[in-house]
Amino acid sequence: MRVSVKWLSEYLDLSGIKPVDLADQITLTGIEVDDVSLPAVTLEKVVVGEVLTAEKMPDSDHLKATMVEVGEEEPVSIVCGAPNVKVGQKVIVALPGVKLPNGLKIKKSKLRGVKSNGMICSLQELGFSDSVVPKKAEEGIYILPEDAKIGHSVLPYIGLDDAYIELDITPNRADALSMRGVGYEVGAILSQKPSFPEVTVTEDKEDKVENYISVSVEDEKDAPVYKMRVIKNLKVNESPMWLQRKLMNVGIRPIDTVVDVTNYIMLEYGQPLHAFDYDALESKRIDVRRAHKNESLVTLDDQTRKLNQDNLVITNGGVPVALAGVMGGLNTHVTEDTQTVALEAALFESSVIRKTAQSLNLRSESSSRFEKGLNTATIEEALDHAAQLIADLGSGQVVSGVAKVEAIQPKDKKVTLAIDKINQALGTELVMDEVVQLMDRLGFETETSTLTLTVTVPPRRWDIAIEADIIEEVARMYGYNRLPSTLPKSESIPGELTPKQRRIRETQRFMEGAGLSQTISYALTTNEKAKAFSRHEGEPVSLDWPMSEEHQALRMSLLSGLLDNVQYNVARQRKSVSFYEIGRVFHADSNKKRPDELTHLAGAMTGSRIEANWQENEQNVDFYTAKGILEEWFILMGIEEEISYAPTSAYEAFHPGRTAEIIWKNNVVGLVGQLHPLLAEERDLKETYLFEIDVDALLDVEKDTLIHVPTPKYPGTSRDIAFVVDEAVLNDSILSVMKQNGGKALKTIKLFDLYQGQNIEDNKKSMAYNLVYQNPEATLKEEEVTKDFEMLKTALVETFHAEIR
């Protein structure tokens, strides 16, 4: 909210306080001030000038040599490029030495041999945004009124002799989204009572509003209050300078008298209004209802809006003519030919307006105020004020009466609380009279007894309803800076990590030690990416009101986000990338209101595992790189003996011959494998290897206590075995059979050779293992080892039809 100090001075005496000091006091009472601007400080030598001559320069198609009277001994010569400069105009002149808001410093100069001792300025050059400059001055200079005094400062004529305070209004203080609301707030700060001019309407008693319009509301919950006045015999023209100045300086473009008045009243009262061209309504009836299926409306921005049944619309009894509380329709907007205006003031259900604005991506100053709430006590007063002002500025007449639907009446709220409760909450020692004075500054009436206080809150402060709200108001007015500072009193309890949190930190340290860098991806993504790589069936959890198409569903896997990060880095010339992430994924459950949240661990690697150097050749990451990292992590978690791997080709996103399911306690808990080459090609990636594990259960497993085992006193022995088996036989299966049949003395098994080729049949492979036997309590006998070794060979032959070599 941009507050004009000069406008505020119409309600309060601000003569004894500087704008910067006022802003500081506003901040101390709880409304944050973003900025204080003082335009007059840097624009002292910008004056009113009158164009005496304007001759086209011979070598230019747009420049004119002008002589301008600026109140000095002689007129000054200024070269001007504006297309609308003419003799006799009062214009804005920046004299040499002025530094404009855009950084340009005005100096005496020559253009094509012609002296230029200043600059005839447009509003944009004085810092006004293009969006607020009146249309007639968009492409050229701004013409001042005829009564502007030559040589005097131009700032009062364009409102820049003012100071502006930018307020950052929080949703609970929407009462400060109006000049009157800010007036009450500043009045409370300065212990003044704001004075607002009385509104009186001069009506044409012989012409009744019933002859023009009737209003109805389909559901009074959607529009508890809907009122309309009619102004006839209007002439729509340009607004007076005072009105244009007020609008431009708070960021609103002047259009015409009718539109400008509705904006002005919205700023003053916080009450949005909308004006219809009565004749364009083609009806004497206004109905407020929800939109019908497949209805549409062309709004004022010339966009066709497809409506749904959650949208609230204003209709002429048949078709929509406005989106309630958001934007009017193009078919009934006021034009320069409008002679009769139907003026609307209403209270709409905030949630309906919010949903409409979000669904159509159509936010406006009006919708933001309807969403946050309105002062129900001034709805008709704002309507009356606007109607009379439109009539006065357009030489029109206000028709007698108000067409209305009024399901609620503005009421004061009473809140009762004990003085002890205020002091206990704030740590103060206030007495009843002090609290009463603070409430009086706010304009709240009070009733007191010995220990309790009853506060009557007017409708303009709809944010106050309970005891805590009154306590907050006491704290604001008393001064947060005056409240005593105390430390909380409680027993100190040392914090510690839960076992699961410790496991997660161990995992982070391990993964980073293995060469992977941690990433954090956004949980919201597209529907397509949310489902990709997930082992869980079903659709992702979608948001009803997503921020964008890229953030509309909750992820079901971490791998999509990881791959986006890998692709981003590879596209920026990083050849080798290794990332991991620990995060939540979300699975919908029809039996629950909320989705299940599961913790996953995922990794993605591409490029080199070892860079080429003088000692080693380059080695690229492969399946066994990813699998090896996981195996070491399972050892860290203490579950390596319970993990197994099973090849799979069931996942479309993975390479069918280089992917395995990770199995723990007969349940599939994850995947490790290569990204499918076609997907890698789509992302411009080389061979990329991925893994993802559901780690919730794994992190909760209790680790066995580590027990130190002394070095054996007795020597061990070893055996090597080589055999040929079918190519499909897995190393895990062979290890399992060896462990079950190798005897008690078998301690370690290590695969040291794998061969396919010459002298080996097709679809066969040769595997060679080293077996280590040891008895920690006695020296092994040869016959014991031989017996166990023979049993192992027999089991391999029977189980896998192995050919011992």
TrEMBL record:
<dbReference type="Pfam" id="PF17759">
    <property type="entry name" value="tRNA_synthFbeta"/>
</dbReference>
<feature type="binding site">
    <location>
        <position position="472"/>
    </location>
    <ligand>
        <name>Mg(2+)</name>
    </ligand>
</feature>
<keyword id="KW-0479">Metal-binding</keyword>
<keyword id="KW-0648">Protein biosynthesis</keyword>
<dbReference type="InterPro" id="IPR005146">
    <property type="entry name" value="B3/B4_tRNA-bd"/>
</dbReference>
<feature type="binding site">
    <location>
        <position position="473"/>
    </location>
    <ligand>
        <name>Mg(2+)</name>
    </ligand>
</feature>
<comment type="similarity">
    <text>Belongs to the phenylalanyl-tRNA synthetase beta subunit family. Type 1 subfamily.</text>
</comment>
<dbReference type="Pfam" id="PF01588">
    <property type="entry name" value="tRNA_bind"/>
</dbReference>
<dbReference type="InterPro" id="IPR045060">
    <property type="entry name" value="Phe-tRNA-ligase_IIc_bsu"/>
</dbReference>
<feature type="domain" description="B5">
    <location>
        <begin position="410"/>
        <end position="485"/>
    </location>
</feature>
<dbReference type="GO" id="GO:0009328">
    <property type="term" value="C:phenylalanine-tRNA ligase complex"/>
</dbReference>
<keyword id="KW-0963">Cytoplasm</keyword>
<dbReference type="InterPro" id="IPR012340">
    <property type="entry name" value="NA-bd_OB-fold"/>
</dbReference>
<feature type="binding site">
    <location>
        <position position="469"/>
    </location>
    <ligand>
        <name>Mg(2+)</name>
    </ligand>
</feature>
<feature type="domain" description="TRNA-binding">
    <location>
        <begin position="40"/>
        <end position="155"/>
    </location>
</feature>
<dbReference type="GO" id="GO:0000287">
    <property type="term" value="F:magnesium ion binding"/>
</dbReference>
<keyword id="KW-0030">Aminoacyl-tRNA synthetase</keyword>
<dbReference type="InterPro" id="IPR041616">
    <property type="entry name" value="PheRS_beta_core"/>
</dbReference>
<protein>
    <recommendedName>
        <fullName>Phenylalanine--tRNA ligase beta subunit</fullName>
        <ecNumber>6.1.1.20</ecNumber>
    </recommendedName>
</protein>
<keyword id="KW-0694">RNA-binding</keyword>
<dbReference type="InterPro" id="IPR005147">
    <property type="entry name" value="tRNA_synthase_B5-dom"/>
</dbReference>
<dbReference type="GO" id="GO:0005524">
    <property type="term" value="F:ATP binding"/>
</dbReference>
<dbReference type="GO" id="GO:0016740">
    <property type="term" value="F:transferase activity"/>
</dbReference>
<dbReference type="GO" id="GO:0140096">
    <property type="term" value="F:catalytic activity, acting on a protein"/>
</dbReference>
<feature type="binding site">
    <location>
        <position position="463"/>
    </location>
    <ligand>
        <name>Mg(2+)</name>
    </ligand>
</feature>
<dbReference type="InterPro" id="IPR005121">
    <property type="entry name" value="Fdx_antiC-bd"/>
</dbReference>
<dbReference type="GO" id="GO:0004826">
    <property type="term" value="F:phenylalanine-tRNA ligase activity"/>
</dbReference>
<dbReference type="GO" id="GO:0000049">
    <property type="term" value="F:tRNA binding"/>
</dbReference>
<feature type="domain" description="FDX-ACB">
    <location>
        <begin position="712"/>
        <end position="805"/>
    </location>
</feature>
<dbReference type="InterPro" id="IPR033714">
    <property type="entry name" value="tRNA_bind_bactPheRS"/>
</dbReference>
<dbReference type="InterPro" id="IPR020825">
    <property type="entry name" value="Phe-tRNA_synthase-like_B3/B4"/>
</dbReference>
<dbReference type="Pfam" id="PF03484">
    <property type="entry name" value="B5"/>
</dbReference>
<keyword id="KW-0547">Nucleotide-binding</keyword>
<dbReference type="InterPro" id="IPR009061">
    <property type="entry name" value="DNA-bd_dom_put_sf"/>
</dbReference>
<keyword id="KW-0436">Ligase</keyword>
<keyword id="KW-0460">Magnesium</keyword>
<keyword id="KW-0820">tRNA-binding</keyword>
<dbReference type="Pfam" id="PF03147">
    <property type="entry name" value="FDX-ACB"/>
</dbReference>
<dbReference type="Pfam" id="PF03483">
    <property type="entry name" value="B3_4"/>
</dbReference>
<dbReference type="InterPro" id="IPR045864">
    <property type="entry name" value="aa-tRNA-synth_II/BPL/LPL"/>
</dbReference>
<dbReference type="InterPro" id="IPR036690">
    <property type="entry name" value="Fdx_antiC-bd_sf"/>
</dbReference>
<dbReference type="InterPro" id="IPR002547">
    <property type="entry name" value="tRNA-bd_dom"/>
</dbReference>
